[in-house]
């Protein structure tokens, strides 16, 4: 029997991509779901995919809305019971270098990707302490390495990593599991949906999307399988994809020079 059988699993960013796949796989394992996203139409598509026979709570929720997040745990507990698993997957991507990207764009990415994780973790901790549950926060490969044109995204994901690893230390011995996930290139639409504030001269948005498609090597169902297996085992760090494993190793071995090595790697991949 799956460890998720009958457990209340809270998933943000569930209208598409990894969030939708998390909902699908957890529903197949008998979980009780509370799914949310800012995209109400996409959420309904997720609900339809899962089927009406599953116990599921669906809410349009913006994790950057502090009051909405504060109110959400009581709604989940009232409808389904206290949370056993909280999977903070909601996030957004914007593209642009530091010089040309408006400050407001950077603030928005940090507010969703980092503060959204902090808010959701903080408000659900009382329930997780009660159930001895698990919080799984989605960082990124870009929470391990830097990448041009992604300073605000990298900053948000490095921050998720720092917050989650510190939380794990603080909750040691409480019975609550804390997992930090670092996916590499996963075949989702996150890059195609990214807002472009500034793009490298000579590179079009279509070319940028094609570049991501070339580098995204992990199917979304496989990525989610790895995340759920790691969550079930309460692994503190979950690396998803061969690219993320290679980049993580290079960063540890060559904290500065890894950037040059990875630039050669990505150039060669784009040439294939």
Walk me through what this model shows:
With 272 residues, the protein is an alpha/beta fold. The protein has one domain: Rossmann fold (3-Layer(aba) Sandwich), CATH 3.40.50. The chain has 9 helices and 9 strands. The strands form 2 sheets. The protein has a 7-stranded parallel beta sheet, sandwiched between helices. β2, α2 and β3 form a beta-alpha-beta unit.
- Give the end-to-end Cα distance, rounded to a whole number of Å: 43 Å
Strand residue content: 5-15%
The topology string of helices and strands comes to EHEHEHEEHEHEEHHEHH
The CATH class designation is Alpha Beta
Shape: globular
Mean pLDDT: 88
The strand line-up of the biggest sheet is 3-2-1-4-6-7-9
Q: Radius of gyration, Cα only, in angstroms?
A: 18 Å
Structure at a glance:
The protein has 272 residues and is of the alpha/beta class. The protein contains 9 helices and 9 strands.
Which features would summarize this protein structure in a list?
globular; 14% strand; Rossmann fold; 9 helices; disordered C terminus
